[in-house]
Design a protein that fits this description.
- The structure is a homodimer.
- Chain A is of the alpha/beta class.
- Chain A folds into three domains: 59 residues, lambda repressor-like DNA-binding domains (434 Repressor (Amino-terminal Domain)), CATH 1.10.260.40; 140 residues, 3-Layer(aba) Sandwich (Rossmann fold); 127 residues, Rossmann fold (3-Layer(aba) Sandwich).
- Helix content of chain A is 44%, strand content 15%.
- Chain A has 13 helices and twelve strands.
- In chain A, strands 2-1-3-4-5-11 form a six-stranded parallel sheet, sandwiched between helices. In chain A, strands 7-6-8-9-10-12 form a six-stranded mixed sheet, sandwiched between helices.
- Strand 2 of chain A pairs antiparallel with strand 2 of chain B, so a sheet runs across the interface.
- Chain B binds a DNA duplex through helix 2 and helix 4.
- Chains A, B: It comes from Streptomyces capitiformicae.
DNA sequence: TTGAAAGCGCTAACAC
DNA sequence: GTGTTAGCGCTTTCAA
C-alpha cells in the first residue's frame, strides 16, 4: 500500500505562478487565448507542484466524466470461460483510449446486482453505457432507460422496434443469420444431406438468428436434427450425444459457436466417427484459441469481435458528441445500428 | 441512444419533503439520528422524484469514490487469448460488489498508454488500484507510486524489497515454485529421468519461480532440457520442436503453463509420440477450458485464480478501511502479502 | 433532532 | 488576455 499525499489544487498552482485560478484552468485545458509567457509560467508551476486536476470537481461543473460503462450481464459462469467478451472489451478499450475516455466495467452475477448497476448508471458516473449479452427477459434495458444514459447495445436486443421511447435503439451486431446460411450452404456444397444443428441459448437473438439461418437453407429439416444447447463445450457434448442417438446416420453438424463445436468434436472422436470423413463439423465465431486448437482444426464462421467492440464505442462516443453540439433533441446525424459481415474460414473439419 | 434527463438534486428532495438539505443527506446516508417520521417523509420524496445522489459532488467532499482501478499492463495480444485475466477479474468483481465498490478497468496496450494511466490514477478517480502482469522493467510501479494510490499487486513484483518507500509492497501470488516442484516430483515419481522444462517469459516472476522450482528438483538438469518460451500455444509448439531436436530421448515435459503445454502436446502427437507412454506432460494453471480439452487431458498444477482476484480486492479494501480508521501513518494491522498454495491435478497426460 | 452555512476544487460567464 | 465571481450538488461542522 502506498501513501495518499494530499494533492495540490488549482489555487496552489495559481499562487505559485502568480496568476488567477481561471488562467491556470485555461492553460490546463489547452491554453487557448493565454499569452505564451504565462502559459509557460503556469506549465512550470504545474510541473513543480505535480498538479493533477481533481476529476470530481471538474465533473461536477462540466457534467462530463470521460468514462463509459461496459455492462456485462451474464449470470452464468460462461462469461469468463469464453474469450468472446475479452475480445470485445479489448476493442472497446482501444477505441476509448483514443478518445481519452475510461472504461468502467460492471459485471452482474445475478438479479441482485441489477439494482446496483442501475444506481451506478443513474449516479452520473459515466457519459454512456455499452451493454452486452441481453437475454430476452432482461430487466436491464428498463433500468438503463430509467437511468437516462446514452447506450449502445452489443448484439441486437430482443425487443421489438416499439421500444424507441427516446431515440431509436442503437446496436452493433454480426450478420448471424447470413453467416449461418453460409456455413450450412458450405456443408451442402460438400455433398452432405443429413445436416444437424446445435443451437445456442434461444433467449439470445444471436442464437435465434443462427437457427433461422440454418432453417433458411435446410427448409424442411428433420426437427430431430435440431437440438438446443447453451454455447458451452459441455453443452456441445451433450447435444452431440443426443443427436447421435436420435439420428445415427447424420453426416454433418453446424454448431452455433466454436465452444459447442469443440464439445461435439470430442464426442464424435470418442464414438469413433472420423471428422470430416464421416461427419463434417462447422462452428461459429472463429475464436482462435478454440478453433485452431481442436482436432481437427475447426471450419467456422468468423466474426470480427474486436471490431464490434471498437465500433460500439465509436458509435457511443459519436452520439455523445452530437448531443454536445446541438444541445436539444438532436435529430440529424444520430448514429444508427451496424451489422457486420461474417466470413467462412475453412480449416479441416468441413 | 437514450435521453439524459436532468436529475433532481438534494435540494429538490428537501423542498418536496419540507426539510433541509442536511436532513435529506442524513437520510440518504443511512438515516442515523433522524426522527422516524421525517425519515419516512424523505424516503417518499426520494422515491417520487427518483432521486439518485450525484457521485461527483459527493466525492468532491468525502474524497471517497467507491471505485477501484484494475490495471492490466500487457502489451501483447496474449492477455485476451488467456482466460487467466478474465478469472481474476471475476474474483475481483465479486469482492468489490460485496463492498459496493466499482471496478474501473485500465488496459494498457503499449508505452504510450502509461501516461494516461498515471494521470488517471493521480486524478483522484479511485480509492485504490489492483495491478497485474508486471514485467521486470515496467515503468508502472513508478507511476503508481507517483500517483500516491494504495495498491495491491497480482503476482510478486520483480523489484527487491528496497522498494518499500511508503509501506511495504502488498501482493497476492501463488506458490509457483512449490507448485513447480510438485509437478516435477510427480514426473520423477513416475520414473521419468529426462525431464524437460518449457519456461514462461522470464521477465515475469511467476515464470522465474516455476523455473526455480524445476531446478530445485532437477538439480543438475541438462541445460539443453530447458527452453525458453512465452506462455502461448504457438510458443509451446516451437519450444517442443526445439526440445525434440536437441534431446530426442526426453521422456517428460513440464510446461510453465497449460497453454504452452497444449502446444507441446500437439507437436508430440504430430511427431507420433504417445502421451503419456512415450512422453509425459504436466502443465500449470489448471485452466479448465484448456486443460480438460487437450488430448489427452492435461495433468497440471492448479492455482485458484479467481480466489487470487478476490483476495487482492479484499486486501486492498481492508487497507483502505484501516487508513480510514487511523488517519495518520497506520502502523499495526496493515495488510500484508499472501501466497496461495497450489495442488497437482492428475489427468491423463502424466 | 434539525437547520444554516461553509466549503470541497473546478469551470464559465462576465467584467475589466 | 486576464481576473472576479458565482455556482456545480453534496457533506459536515456548528448553533439552535
Amino acid at each position: 500500500m502506498t501513501e495518499t499525499a494530499s494533492r495540490p489544487t488549482l489555487e496552489a498552482v495559481a499562487a505559485r505562478a502568480g496568476v488567477s485560478r481561471a488562467t491556470v484552468s485555461r492553460v490546463v485545458n489547452g491554453g487557448e487565448g493565454v499569452r505564451e509567457t504565462l502559459v509557460e509560467r503556469v506549465r512550470r508551476a504545474v510541473e513543480e507542484l505535480g498538479y493533477v486536476p481533481n476529476q470530481a470537481a471538474r465533473s461536477l461543473v462540466t457534467r462530463r466524466h470521460d468514462a463509459v460503462a461496459v455492462v456485462i450481464a451474464e449470470p452464468e459462469t460462461r462469461v469468463f470461460a469464453d474469450p468472446f467478451f475479452a475480445l470485445q472489451l479489448r476493442g472497446i478499450s482501444k477505441e476509448l483510449t483514443v478518445h481519452d475516455s475510461q472504461l468502467v466495467l460492471l459485471l452482474t452475477e445475478g438479479r441482485e446486482d441489477y439494482a446496483r448497476v442501475g444506481r451506478y448508471l443513474a449516479g452520473g458516473h459515466v457519459d454512456g453505457a455499452l451493454v452486452f449479452s441481453l437475454h430476452l427477459d432482461d430487466p436491464l434495458p428498463g433500468l438503463i432507460h430509467g437511468a437516462g444514459v446514452p447506450t449502445v447495445f452489443g448484439g441486437r436486443p430482443g425487443w421489438s422496434d416499439g421500444m424507441r421511447v427516446n431515440g431509436p435503439t442503437v446496436y452493433v451486431d454480426s450478420d448471424n443469420r447470413g453467416g449461418a446460411r453460409e456455413a450450412v450452404r458450405h456443408l451442402v456444397g460438400l455433398g452432405h444431406t443429413r445436416i444437424a444443428h446445435i443451437t445456442g441459448p434461444l433467449d439470445q437473438t444471436c442464437a435465434v438468428d443462427r437457427l433461422d439461418g440454418f432453417r433458411d437453407v435446410m427448409v424442411d429439416a428433420d426437427p430431430r436434427l435440431i437440438v438446443g444447447s447453451d454455447f458451452t463445450p459441455v453443452g456441445g457434448e451433450r447435444a452431440m450425444r443426443e443427436l447421435l442417438e436420435r439420428c445415427p446416420e447424420l453426416d454433418a453438424v453446424f454448431a452455433a459457436n466454436d465452444l459447442s463445436a469443440s464439445g461435439a468434436l470430442r464426442v464424435l472422436r470418442e464414438r469413433g466417427r472420423r471428422v470430416p470423413e464421416d461427419v463434417a463439423v462447422v462452428g461459429f465465431d472463429d475464436m482462435l484459441p478454440v478453433a485452431e486448437q481442436t482436432d481437427p482444426p475447426l471450419t467456422t464462421v468468423r466474426q470480427d469481435i474486436e471490431e464490434m467492440g471498437r465500433l460500439m464505442a465509436r458509435l457511443l462516443l459519436r452520439g455523445l458528441e452530437q448531443r454536445g453540439r446541438d444541445e436539444q433533441g438532436s435529430v440529424g446525424g444520430a448514429p444508427s445500428s451496424v451489422v457486420l459481415p461474417t466470413t467462412l474460414v475453412r480449416r479441416a473439419s468441413a
